[in-house]
Amino acid sequence: MTTTPRPATELTADEARRIALRAQGFLGAPDRSAGVRGVLRHLGAVQLDTISVLARSHELIPYARLGAVGRRTVEDAYWTPGTSGAPHAFEYWSHAACILPVEEWPHFAFRRRAYRTRPHWHHDLPDGAYEQVIKQLHAEGPLTATELGGAKNKGEWWDWSAAKVAVERALMYGEVVCTQRRSWKRVYDLAERAVPAELLHDDLDDRECLRRLVRLAGQSLGVGTRSDIADYHRLKNEQFDAVVEDSGLVPVTVEGWGKPAWADPAALETVPRGRHRTTLLSPFDSLIWERARTERIFGFTHRLEAYVPKPKRVHGYFAMPVLAGGHLVGRVDPARDGSTLVAKQVSLDGPKAVPAVAQALREAAQWVGCDTVRIERVDLPGLKPALVTALD
């Protein structure tokens, strides 16, 4: 039996941009009552990263949407169990290493199964090492890799100990889960003990898992191309193709995109209106984590330069795009010097960007406990006095 394709809804580029902003929590009043956990569930994934300049990325994500929520509050919201003792979130491989709502545990069963059939980073394990880790966690409760016997050997940073290799393998398989970070170290526990019983099952087939994740990605993005939506949870294009018709997303065409796209039908029901957020964005924010999408929606080319040799950097080590009025209007490469937030390099999209960049810097400084802001370099030197004045 064949079905007639549904007609695609036509969106202007501006409508698509506003839909994306609203879906990501940057347009309209933020849901402060739901707080950090609401942001996590709304986005479906919050990426983790080791870099900490202004703050770590998983702290910057709710800050960008909610404003100056306390950093301790952010950590507690992710990792503190509820009154029943059940976790609110777990860490797993999604877009990258991400914090995920615990209720999505069943929908990553397809990935846990896939990991069991893949080579394991060419790390060999001594006989019994895997079983020993499971046995120790069973006997002693949640532990870090250090507590399991040490995370590293004496070589380079990637020279993991047998205990670290074993517990990471168990994490990928789903026998072990991370529901907490302690001093940035993963805390591992047995999934059977940490994950609520009603969620622990892995009996969802791959198609059901993929359909759910494609639907969630479409809701979190509002509108996106095949690669936008698939990339959100690092699905393969063919996995997206297999389930998109049953995902509940609807086909749309977007002016200037030149590619087929799909949208959350709820996002098409009302015109996106409301107040725009003005804020600094982590380069790992899901609004901008895919370069091609960022260029397509905002006409803004951005890359993380932390791994670029210093002489070749254009905008700085951890340049953070500035969002204002629904557009990306500049970049700031921040640093901390005691109680001073230092803008080592500021890139501005012309004079009109000055007030927004100044506001974003002032608010970020207050959030991290700095009482002054110092501007070092501005790509348009003639605008530096105006930026300094706007900060005062």
- Cα(first) to Cα(last) distance is 68 Å
Mean pLDDT: 93
The biggest beta sheet reads: 5 strands, mixed
Count of discrete alpha- or pi-helical segments spanning 4 or more residues: 15
Determine the strand fraction and express it as a percent band: 15-25%
Q: Kindly report the spatial arrangement of strands forming the biggest sheet.
A: 10-11-12-13-14
Q: How much helix, percentage-wise, in residues?
A: 25-40%
Which parts are unreliable, with pLDDT below 50 for 5 consecutive residues or more?
A: 1-7
Radius of gyration: 22 Å
Number of strands: 14
Secondary-structure element order, N to C: EHHEHHEEHHHEEHHHEHHEEEHEEEHEH
- Which term fits the overall shape? globular
Coarse structural class: alpha+beta
Give a verbal description of the structure.
Keywords: DNA-binding. InterPro entries: AlkZ-like. This is Winged helix DNA-binding domain-containing protein. By secondary structure, the protein is an alpha+beta fold. It has 15 helices and 14 strands. The protein is globular and about 65 Å long. The model is unreliable at about 1-5 (pLDDT under 50).
Short description:
This protein has 15 helices and 14 strands.
List keywords for this structure.
392 residues; 35% helix; 5-stranded mixed β-sheet; alpha+beta
